[in-house]
Amino acid sequence: MKNKPLVQVKNLKKSFGDNLVLDGISFSLNTGENKVIIGPSGTGKSTVLNCINRLIMPDSGEIWLEDKEIVTAENINKIRQEIGYVFQGFGLFHHLTAKKNVMLGLRKVKKISKNEAEDIARFELNRVGLTDVDDSYPAQLSGGQKQRVAIARALAMQPKLMLFDEPTSALDPELIGEVLNVMKKLAEEGMTMLVVTHEMGFARSVSDEIIFMEGGKIVEQNHPEVMFKGPENERTRQFLFKLDDLYGKGGE
Amino acid sequence: MVDFLSQYLIIDIFISNFGRLMSGLRFTFTLTIVVMFFGTIFGVLLALGRSFGSKPVAWLCTAYIEIIRGTPMLAQLFILYFALPPYGIRMTAVTVAYLGFTINCAAYQAEYTRGSIESVSSDQFKSAYSLGMSRWQTIFIVVLPQAIRWAIPAWTNEFIYILKYTSLAYVIGAPDLMTQGKFIASRNYQFFRVYLIVAIIYLIIVWISTWIIDIVEEKLKIPGFG
């Protein structure tokens, strides 16, 4: 089963003006795998995720989702349906209730009937632990609830891959847990996930591999235990050491 | 006694010209509703063209909006009514009123709508795209409904504005409330009292409209959003 990766990123490059943001990024992701990208701010982590569903067009390189190449794909909307995306700022549609937020993609993109879309929406909202928010508008929800609606909305499309772009960075510390728990559960259910986060506890306990990026390059990618106990690269060591100072030892 | 008398005279003038005043009011009101309806539709299309259209489309929409907003309403009515006939385009005063005010209203509605389109944050585009929605799907299903919610107060303000500014129709003799007032006054020479009556009718109509608009705006609110 795992002989061909679900996602393959090959030598990805992107500049914004004179600023080289991605300088040859390559990695792959097998079905069911969970990888976490860490690294200092402004290092291109989010840009990698944005390139994978082509919200940002890379300058060069290849991105493969199974046997489809994304950078040169003609119908990107088709491919985006297979990639769930969770944003730092939730990105919920403000004029729609939680349930309708989840239903919109099903109705307008997948053209599923209203009843069926409603059933799926309820199921997915339940799956992220939300039962009473069907008819609430985004502005009536807490940050944690908003982010879980956003996750449910992405899941409803039955993606092959879920991208998480700092999903807890806009949340109060008290609300981070509820979102991380949903993500943990998804990982346990076998969802393929690529997560940009500063939550070292999550990275350590859930991910199969940690990718450390800096200056648009992958400095080191390794199993979390190796990364936390004895990273091969000196720079990785410094970064994780600093995070330990800030947030306490990852997952301990 | 003088107060009482003048008050009596207003009522007297009002009653004796009731039919004419009401027919003027009916015209003013119909004109406003029709102008608002088409002006808003064209305004939204212009705003979409200016915000999301291809370069030539955006340029054309911008040119229209800026030319109409940059010239006096009165001049626009005069051009339609007096300057076009020599070129073979003849319209009745009523047609010119409907057309002229709609052309003008559309430009303003476009700018109100564009303002609120731009206040819809770009993350709405990103999350719609990430679900596989196309650009125009996103614009019509996600961005525009939100933008319209934001634009409603400005739109209703425009309604009040149009309601009063249709009084300019008197310069071309379209049978609106103002024209009827002018007609009555020119016969009885009671200019002050007649225009006072006209002003009071406008005031009452504006109050009632504002009251209804407030109710509608309240109904269209998105909880916690606006």
Strand and helix layout:
The complex is a heterodimer of chains A (252) and B (226).
Chain A: E1 7-16, E2 19-29, E3 34-38, H1 45-52, E4 60-65, E5 68-69, H2 76-80, E6 83-86, H3 98-108, H4 114-127, H5 143-156, E7 161-165, H6 173-188, E8 192-196, H7 200-206, E9 209-214, E10 217-222, H8 224-229, H9 234-247
Parallel strand pairs in A: 3-8, 3-9, 6-7, 7-8
Antiparallel strand pairs in A: 1-2, 1-4, 4-5, 9-10
Chain B: H1 2-16, H2 18-52, H3 55-70, H4 73-83, H5 93-119, H6 123-130, H7 135-165, H8 177-188, H9 191-220
Helix pairs in contact in B: 1-9, 2-3, 2-5, 2-7, 2-8, 3-5, 4-5, 5-7, 6-7, 7-9, 8-9
Report on the architecture of this protein.
The complex is a heterodimer of chains A (about 250) and B (about 230). By secondary structure, chain A is of the alpha/beta class. Chain A contains nine helices and ten strands. Chain A has helices at about 45-50, 75-80, 100-110, 115-125, 145-155, 175-190, 200-205, 225-230, 235-245; strands spanning about 5-15, 20-30, 35-40, 60-65, 70, 85, 160-165, 190-195, 210-215, 215-220. In chain A, the strands form two sheets. In chain A, strands 6-7-8-3-9-10 form a six-stranded mixed beta sheet, with helices on both faces. The model of chain A has no long low-confidence stretch (mean pLDDT about 90). Chain B is mostly helical and about 230 residues long. Chain B has one domain (about 1-220): Orthogonal Bundle (MetI-like fold). Chain B has helices at about 1-15, 20-50, 55-70, 75-85, 95-120, 125-130, 135-165, 175-190, 190-220. The longest helix of chain B has about 35 residues, at about 20-50. Chain B is flat, with a radius of gyration of 21 Å. The chains are: A alpha/beta (about 250), B mainly alpha (about 230). At the A-B interface, α2, β6, α3 and α5 of A face α6 and α7 of B.
